[in-house]
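DM between two lab members

TW: hey, do you still have the mevalonate kinase entry open?
JB: yeah, one sec
JB: this one, 331 aa:
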Amino acid sequence: MISASAPAKLILSGEHAVVYGAPALAAAVSPRAQVRVSELPKPEVVLLLDGIEQRLSILDCLDMQADLDDAHEAFLDGELEIQDVLESGRQLFFYLAAQWLQPDSRQGVKIELDSAIPIGAGLGSSAATIAAVASALAQFYGEPMDASQLIALTRFVERLQHGRGSAIDATTVVQGGVLYLHQDQVETLAPLQGPWWLVHSGQPQCSTGECVSQVRQQFADSSLWQTFSQVTQGLRQALLEHDQAGIISAISANQRLLEQIGVVPAPVQQFIRQLEAKGGAAKVCGAGAIRGDQAGAVLVYGVDPSDLALAAGYRCTALQGEQDGAHVAAG
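TW: and the structure you got?
JB:
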């Protein structure tokens, strides 16, 4: 049996903008996705997720792989909406297993996935689970991957759920730590310091792919992405200098930009204004939401949000960074 894990991620600055060439800051955080992979005597793939077992023959798994590739091509051609590419997120793991399968394989594989990362909360749950499973499968089949290969495969599989997307989620969950990413350059910063919290505003009523697609339709050619870049660069400098006032200013500016592109529901905006009135700063992390009242994860800095989160019906936790990215467990 092979065991592996990968952390969740938070985007500190640059969500959406990174798709258009702007830099981003991201941090790997707890909790982690855990996976166990073991051999089966029959030519099938078994997925155990959330207590539910699902089986596919190897030939059916390979057929699913081809069908999903065709569906994604249809999305790229404008013939299909991104939310219609996958019938279920479970298909991602059968698709991933198919990367190593052969039609004449006599043995199969069992994938047991256990993730405490909330889905649709801006925490990179799909990237983390894909990276963890990919790490375990690569080791299981005797083809361990380096970080760049694992990032590339995670992005390739995740495109089925998020359309085109960016490298930020994959790079962060694979490498761990706090990262400044710009195009092909990745800079590792010191671990997060100071009063950081994570507030869960609830799962959005729309997928990341839907949010990314709508923002692209409305703002693809906007000059806003240059402003996003400046804000992210300012936050990077403030983090390097441990400048609390600079961190608060940059986070607040980022939040206003996210509101401009329409991915912050009104109740979440109101909650953030209350935090700002207490001297802190907060912003939506990840894609946000284009409908409904929930926006996933909200990053908070400078003030304890516990009382306001309780009043709003949100869950609140102190933020814990993860220095270790995706890896196979020793032993």
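TW: got it. The chain has a mean pLDDT of 92. The chain is about 40% helix and 25% strand.
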